[in-house]
């Protein structure tokens, strides 16, 4: 990232990427992005610009006049394809940053996704809702609850006037409304929305899908904060079980793939591409570590619960190529499993640790 102060040419209205105020600094790498000052340039770079800087050039650079209709149509199709790719990339990045607790950095990514969605789908489309939801959740994380309410109201209104809206989007809307009410310490209303989240996610993906597990996790947190530990524990157990089964399938596919002939972590393969995206990886890290910390510090915690979440984390870090953490959680899982009566379960943890130990 470098500074390139500029004087706006006469008749050219350059706007800041983040706030849309007059811009006086240009990105020296892509040369198609402008800022009102250094602060916004740095914020955008950390949030999303470093990742998309070169990708913006073909989207914002004027092209020569194309004589034939066929050439113009091909150019338009290319542009549309690139814009849709940018929507996916910026949204995934924004969601990943939210799971990592980087709420301030998630805002530029969400703003970019919203901009591209408007260009592709228009101002009133349901396709804008995921971007509003990321902005809403970022605002909740930053304690800007009034701003969060504005974003979520916009999302809610769009959903209400779109009867064909998918259950996936309805699920995410309920989750964000639940998070907003939890931040306002209105737990009954929060739980109502988390129940709506689980219902719509189950309709879309099934009750045992990782995309449904987030609703269980946030509902568990709401009960935990009300000191209703029995209910919270059962929900945390549900979340752990869903991730455990999902990660087990990914690990088995990794071990069975041809790429493993030269070692369990050798190379990439088709299964890996179909595994977890960046946002799901960040969600798994956040959720499973939170449950592990609670189990480890919980007086009288069942050894099965600690062993299972430890094993899940070992599998997760194995898939993420973090061998040291995979071994560390594998050993913790083995230790916790010593108090478990299910011998087959205990043996599976030991065998997986052996797989990790063989990785150089």
UniProtKB/TrEMBL annotation:
<protein>
    <recommendedName>
        <fullName>MYND-type domain-containing protein</fullName>
    </recommendedName>
</protein>
<dbReference type="Pfam" id="PF01753">
    <property type="entry name" value="zf-MYND"/>
</dbReference>
<keyword id="KW-0862">Zinc</keyword>
<feature type="domain" description="MYND-type">
    <location>
        <begin position="16"/>
        <end position="53"/>
    </location>
</feature>
<keyword id="KW-0479">Metal-binding</keyword>
<dbReference type="InterPro" id="IPR053248">
    <property type="entry name" value="Zinc_finger_MYND_domain"/>
</dbReference>
<dbReference type="GO" id="GO:0008270">
    <property type="term" value="F:zinc ion binding"/>
</dbReference>
<dbReference type="InterPro" id="IPR002893">
    <property type="entry name" value="Znf_MYND"/>
</dbReference>
<dbReference type="InterPro" id="IPR011990">
    <property type="entry name" value="TPR-like_helical_dom_sf"/>
</dbReference>
<feature type="region of interest" description="Disordered">
    <location>
        <begin position="259"/>
        <end position="279"/>
    </location>
</feature>
<feature type="compositionally biased region" description="Acidic residues">
    <location>
        <begin position="269"/>
        <end position="279"/>
    </location>
</feature>
<keyword id="KW-0863">Zinc-finger</keyword>
């Amino acid at each position: 990232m470098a500074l390139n102060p500029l004087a706006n040419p006469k008749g050219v209205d350059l706007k800041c990427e983040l706030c849309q105020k007059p811009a006086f600094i240009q990105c020296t790498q892509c040369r198609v992005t402008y800022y009102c000052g250094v602060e916004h340039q740095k914020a955008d770079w950390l949030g999303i610009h470093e990742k998309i800087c070169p990708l913006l050039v073909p989207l914002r650079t004027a092209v020569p006049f194309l004589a034939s209709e066929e050439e113009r149509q091909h150019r338009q199709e290319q542009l549309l394809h690139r814009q849709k790719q940018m929507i996916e990339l910026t949204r995934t990045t924004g969601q990943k940053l939210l799971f990592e607790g980087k709420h301030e950095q998630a805002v530029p990514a969400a703003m970019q996704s919203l901009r591209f969605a408007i260009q592709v789908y228009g101002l009133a489309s349901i396709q804008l809702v995921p971007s509003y939801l990321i902005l809403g959740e970022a605002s909740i994380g930053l304690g800007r609850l009034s701003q969060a309410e504005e974003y979520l109201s916009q999302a809610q209104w769009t959903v209400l006037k779109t009867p064909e809206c998918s259950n996936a989007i309805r699920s995410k809307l309920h989750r964000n409304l639940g998070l907003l009410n939890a931040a306002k310490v209105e737990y009954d209303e929060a739980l109502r929305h988390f129940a709506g989240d689980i219902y719509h996610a189950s309709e879309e993906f099934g009750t045992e899908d990782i995309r449904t597990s987030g609703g269980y996790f946030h509902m568990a947190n709401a009960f935990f904060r009300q000191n209703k530990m029995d209910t919270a524990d059962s929900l945390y157990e549900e979340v752990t079980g869903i991730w455990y089964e999902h990660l087990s399938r990914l690990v088995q596919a990794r071990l069975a793939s041809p790429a493993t002939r030269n070692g369990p972590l050798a190379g990439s393969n088709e299964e890996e591409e179909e595994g977890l995206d960046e946002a799901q990886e960040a969600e798994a890290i956040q959720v499973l570590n939170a449950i592990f910390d609670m189990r480890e510090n919980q007086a009288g915690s069942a050894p099965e619960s600690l062993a299972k979440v430890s094993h899940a984390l070992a599998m997760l870090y194995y898939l993420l190529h973090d061998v040291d953490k995979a071994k560390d959680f594998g050993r913790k899982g083995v230790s916790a499993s010593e108090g478990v009566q299910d011998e087959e379960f205990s043996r599976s943890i030991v065998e997986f640790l052996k797989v990790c130990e063989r990785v150089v």
